[in-house]
Design goal:
By secondary structure, this protein is of the alpha/beta class. Helices cover 43% and strands 10% of the residues. It has eleven helices and six strands. The protein has a six-stranded mixed β-sheet with strand order 3-2-1-4-6-5, sandwiched between helices. Strand 1, helix 3 and strand 2 form a beta-alpha-beta unit. The relative contact order is 0.13.
């Protein structure tokens, strides 16, 4: 009987520990994915969006641009249909040899970073006032969980983007939620080591910047910058960053992850 009681108590304790671990993980996912806001938005978003946005251009399209990387198979018609007051620079990263496409990147590596840097390099002298760098998916709970708007919708993210604030601040991460990437527990970033920092910034105008050992930035490489902020770095810096992606032994995903956590530094912010 005593053995049975001990076994039952041990099993109960183990079950309790597992439940606590599961609870902690669920709470973290709930926070990262903004689940509560998403559920609430499901009831309110359609009618509110129709009232607030009638498709009327809100500013001069000659003075702001969306930069995006896409796979050839991806449909990005939602951009022109819903954001007609923005210029677009949409780069196909994997064009097939028998398909005519518009803008392409030198190679398919670094995830969105290759397109982002290519745009700056190709247009450095003729940049509009505001540059928005976003992903090719419009919305969706799983695909676009990192977009902090109702339905995780990039259309709403750009329609509500405060352009004067971008001009004032220079760089604005389009994700306001600190989880993941900016919480204190995330700042010992496995992707940005001292060696990586040195390799990325060596030979640039900020090569003397010191690596603090920590990097804090909200994920996931969607942000807006001003023309003036871009030009605080010389063109050769952006060429260097793109060359690093091409030359590094890191994979497409890993090199892109490095850039994801360095955009704020590249555009003038502290590492944390």
């Amino acid at each position: 009987m005593r053995w049975s009681l001990r076994l039952a108590l041990s099993a109960s304790a183990l079950t309790l520990i597992l439940l606590l671990l599961v609870k902690t993980k669920i709470e973290d996912i709930w926070d990262q994915y903004s689940v509560g806001d998403y559920i609430k938005s499901s009831w309110q978003h359609s009618s509110k969006s129709a009232k607030n946005h009638d498709g009327t251009p809100q500013s001069n399209p000659d003075d702001k641009v969306i930069i995006m990387a896409k796979l050839e198979k991806e449909d990005i018609n939602w951009v022109a249909e819903n954001l007609p007051d923005w210029q677009t620079a949409i780069y196909t990263v994997n064009p097939s040899s028998n398909t005519s496409v518009g803008l392409t990147t030198p190679m398919n590596k670094g995830h969105e970073a290759m397109a982002y840097l290519s745009y700056i390099i190709d247009n450095y002298d003729t940049l509009p006032s505001t540059l928005a760098f976003i992903h090719s998916h419009r919305n969706g709970f799983l695909a676009a969980w990192h977009t902090d708007t109702p339905y995780h919708d990039n259309v709403d993210a750009l329609r509500t983007l405060q352009l004067p604030y971008v001009q004032e601040n220079g760089y604005v991460n389009l994700r306001c939620n600190w989880n993941p990437g900016c919480l204190e527990a995330h700042r010992d970033n496995a992707h940005v080591t001292a060696d990586v920092w040195h390799d990325v910034f060596e030979g640039t105008s900020t090569e003397d910047s010191q690596f603090t050992g920590q990097v804090g930035a909200g994920c996931c490489a969607q942000f807006a910058v001003s023309r003036d902020q871009v030009r605080k770095r010389p063109l050769d810096d952006y060429k260097h960053f793109r060359d690093w992606i091409v030359d590094t032994e890191k994979s497409d995903a890993k090199s892109g992850r490095v850039m994801e956590f360095l955009w704020h530094v590249i555009f003038g912010k502290e590492s944390v």
